[in-house]
Amino acid sequence: MSTVRAVVCGEIVPGVQTRNVFTYDRATGALTSAGKSAIATQLNLAWLSIAAYVSAIWVADRIEWYEWDGEEWQPRGSSAFTPSMTGQTDMMPSSVAALVSAFTDRKRVRGKKFIAGLLESAFTDGVPIAGLLASLAAFVARYIQPVSVSQENAYYPGCWTNLSHLFTPFVSGDASSYASTMRRRKPGVGI
User: Fold this and answer.
1) Phi, psi for 121 (deg, rounded to 5)
2) What is the DSSP letter of 129?
3) What is the pLDDT of residues 99-137, one digit of tens each?
4) CB of 118 within 8 A of CB of 110?
5) Which secondary-structure segment (H or E) carries 23?
6) What is the rounded CA–CA span in Å between residue 85 and residue 49?
7) 110 Cβ contact list (under 8 Å, min separation 6)
8) Where are the beta strands (DSSP E) in 42-162?
């Protein structure tokens, strides 16, 4: 079993970083360059599904790769990652985000992604417009979809539980129909 993390790193405004952690597992073998490429392609398609509703001010620049060695997360390099966001109107405050969730078959074990940099025009009274909700649904579909790699085992997305060191695959997902608030972290805390 090989558990890997792809951390999408970006900047929403100068000095305000975003980091979205995506965890994958596969039955055998270490993370390969083909695996990195396939996961990056899947994540790029996910981000492009919401590109029209995210301000062009938000810029992603890389994916940092990590692999679980049985005791801790080991860095496995980084690769360029530059999906182009196309939103051109005013952006919501940097702490306001859309929330997408992916669920496992275990209670209270789920993945959450806060999508920041959303346009003011994508909300009416704090509620996402229908087009944004449809785009977030497409993002969720990519987020929970296994990643196939030619002649290798697929990478299955899911949740990593730090206390028990247990990976649980996703079985479904959804997007919140209300604006959410992104949690702030100190630099260097978490991955």
Assistant:
1) -70, -10
2) -
3) 999 999 998 889 999 888 899 999 998 889 999 999 999
4) no
5) strand 16-26
6) 10
7) 101, 102, 103, 104, 159
8) 59-68, 73-80, 96-103, 110-116, 123-124, 127-128, 156-161
